[in-house]
Amino acid sequence: MSNKILFYREADALYLIFFNHIMAAHISSLFEIIENDINNNIITKIYVDFYKCNYIDSTVIGTLIKIDSILKKSGNRLILYNLNNEIFDILKKMGLQRYFVISDEKIELKDIKKYRELEESSKRINPEFVLDAHNNIIRVSPEMRKEFEVLISMLKQEVNR
After folding, report:
1. pTM for the model
2. Mean pLDDT by 10 residues, the chain (161 residues)
3. Residue 132's closest CA among 31, 5, 20, 14?
4. Distances from the Cα of 30 to the Cα of 15, 37, 64, 113, 161, angstroms
5. From the CB of residue 64, how many other CB atoms can be counted at a distance below 10 Å?
6. How far is residue 35's CA from residue 25's CA, in Å, rounded to a whole number?
7. Is residue 17 a contact partner of residue 30, using CB atoms and an 8 Å limit?
8. Burial of 111 (0-12, 13-18, 19+ CB in 10 A)
């Protein structure tokens, strides 16, 4: 199974399915596409299905926090569902299992034929994007500061070049 994100948009809702290992390049591409729509309340509901996903990196987590923070401003939330043990353990180790809305409810999967595959960006990931993602993690889970201290320092140097 390949690493990919499938997405489907219906009215103001965005449905995502994460497959296998989702990394910075995947989430960067997704954020590029939806940033304007979530900032302008065109997309107000986002559902992320993790049933087929067994790994997400810290940039993905930090970007999900950013998306959720934007949605929260207008009284909405990002909903995570079908979390398997691997993904739940990652969030738990970071102290984020209480931050995210994690649904035990089965969200009805829209017709899979309507989903499109997100094109993974081939361009270099912007270090500011990665830095922002990690700052988001620390903002909501300050105990992770020590964990990301070296990475954040390196990213700041890269950004300030």
Report:
1. 0.94
2. 90 95 94 94 95 95 97 94 92 94 78 85 86 98 96 95 88
3. 31
4. 12, 12, 10, 19, 26
5. 26
6. 15
7. no
8. exposed
Tokens representing residue 3 in the block:
């690493």
**What residues have CB less than 8 Å from 150, skipping those under 6 apart?**
none
Tens-digit pLDDT profile for residues 49-84: 998 999 999 999 999 999 999 999 999 999 999 998
Query: Where are the domains positioned within the chain?
Result: 4-159
Phi, psi of 98 (to 5 degrees): -90, -20
Domain boundaries 4-159, corresponding CATH code: 3.30.750.24
The residue type at 21: H
Question: How far is 101 from 82, CA to CA, in rounded Å?
Answer: 12
Cα separation, 34 vs 77, whole angstroms: 15
